[in-house]
Automatic annotation (TrEMBL):
<keyword id="KW-0961">Cell wall biogenesis/degradation</keyword>
<protein>
    <recommendedName>
        <fullName>N-acetylmuramoyl-L-alanine amidase</fullName>
        <ecNumber>3.5.1.28</ecNumber>
    </recommendedName>
</protein>
<dbReference type="GO" id="GO:0008745">
    <property type="term" value="F:N-acetylmuramoyl-L-alanine amidase activity"/>
</dbReference>
<dbReference type="GO" id="GO:0009254">
    <property type="term" value="P:peptidoglycan turnover"/>
</dbReference>
<dbReference type="InterPro" id="IPR051206">
    <property type="entry name" value="NAMLAA_amidase_2"/>
</dbReference>
<dbReference type="GO" id="GO:0009253">
    <property type="term" value="P:peptidoglycan catabolic process"/>
</dbReference>
<feature type="domain" description="N-acetylmuramoyl-L-alanine amidase">
    <location>
        <begin position="18"/>
        <end position="160"/>
    </location>
</feature>
<dbReference type="GO" id="GO:0071555">
    <property type="term" value="P:cell wall organization"/>
</dbReference>
<keyword id="KW-0378">Hydrolase</keyword>
<dbReference type="Pfam" id="PF01510">
    <property type="entry name" value="Amidase_2"/>
</dbReference>
<dbReference type="InterPro" id="IPR036505">
    <property type="entry name" value="Amidase/PGRP_sf"/>
</dbReference>
<dbReference type="InterPro" id="IPR002502">
    <property type="entry name" value="Amidase_domain"/>
</dbReference>
Length: 284
């Protein structure tokens, strides 16, 4: 991924502090308005990075400087902020996520934006390590939301629908990789290959269960597990009274359609829907 450099006038000294936290924000504005705000000295506001809804990344402030975005501490909930106090701008790296009315102001990131943000967190970790000799752990103790610093003035930043669980799960994987290796993983996830693998794993799991229907040891359990899918079957185009055999046949039919260009898109959508539900039930 690439980072576009757009330096702004608003920033200050880290005052001998080293970055130890990454703070996530929502911009409540477009990427253009974000830059205009940060480059206006009268606003006294800035952030190190911005991540667009299209997955673009812009750097406004160098990591050796303090951006002006989370300096006020009010009823903090993050333990590290309670311990360090001071001005979090001096020991933080800030990421603004583009979000505005009707387009992610609630923190609901696009997939492109989410993956770009994940990569950026890893990039920051490696860049700070190279610059300061400090490795910021990519965990919930040191990857924060603005609301954890100022729970009064910014109680919802970076948005009530910000994907924290998904982010921390992905960052736990990034933690074990180099930036180059992690970038390759993200390209795989974005390519659709991962979705196809998940969809086909679901179809394969249902086929495996159905092959055990007549097994004296596993038959009853296999049928019971397939019936766990009953609540989602209407959305998968199933009609009639659900039975283990009927559910297995329907999933098999969807899988066959996924190999035909004309029906592939809708079939993949249904397989992914089924896979998500199967994961929630522990079938995958």
């Amino acid at each position: 991924m690439n980072i576009e450099q757009k330096p702004v006038v608003n920033h200050g000294s880290r005052k001998n502090s080293k970055p130890v936290i990454i703070v996530n924000h929502i911009s409540v504005g477009t990427m253009r308005s974000m830059y205009n705000t940060f480059n206006n000295a009268a606003n006294q506001a800035s952030s190190h990075f911005g991540v667009g809804r299209d997955g673009s990344i812009v750097q406004y402030v160098s990591l050796d400087r303090a951006a002006w975005t989370q300096g006020r501490i009010q009823a903090p909930t993050a333990q590290i902020v309670k311990q360090l106090l001071g001005n979090p701008n001096t020991y933080g790296v800030s990421i603004e996520h583009e979000g505005y009315a009707g387009n992610g102001v609630d923190g609901n990131l696009t997939d492109e934006q989410f993956y770009a943000s994940c990569w950026l967190h890893k990039h920051i970790q490696e860049a700070v390590l190279a610059m300061y000799g400090v490795k910021i752990p990519l965990n919930s103790h040191q990857v924060l939301g603005h609301y954890q610093i100022d729970s009064i003035g910014k109680p919802a930043c970076p948005g009530r629908n910000f994907p924290w669980a998904r982010l921390y799960a992905e960052l736990s994987i990034a933690e074990t990789m180099t930036l180059a290796d992690y970038a390759e993983r993200l390209e795989y996830l974005k390519s659709g290959t991962a979705d196809r693998a998940t969809a086909y794993a679901f179809a394969s799991r249902i086929a495996d269960l159905s092959s055990k229907f007549n097994d004296p040891t596993w038959g009853t359990a296999a049928k019971a597990k397939i019936m766990w899918m009953e609540p989602i079957m209407y959305d998968l185009g199933y009609t009639g009274e659900p039975t283990p055999e009927g559910i297995a046949n329907r999933v098999s039919s969807i899988y066959k359609n996924s190999t035909v260009d004309k029906y592939q898109g809708e079939a993949m959508r249904k397989l992914m829907l089924g896979a998500k539900f199967a994961k929630e039930k522990g079938l995958l």
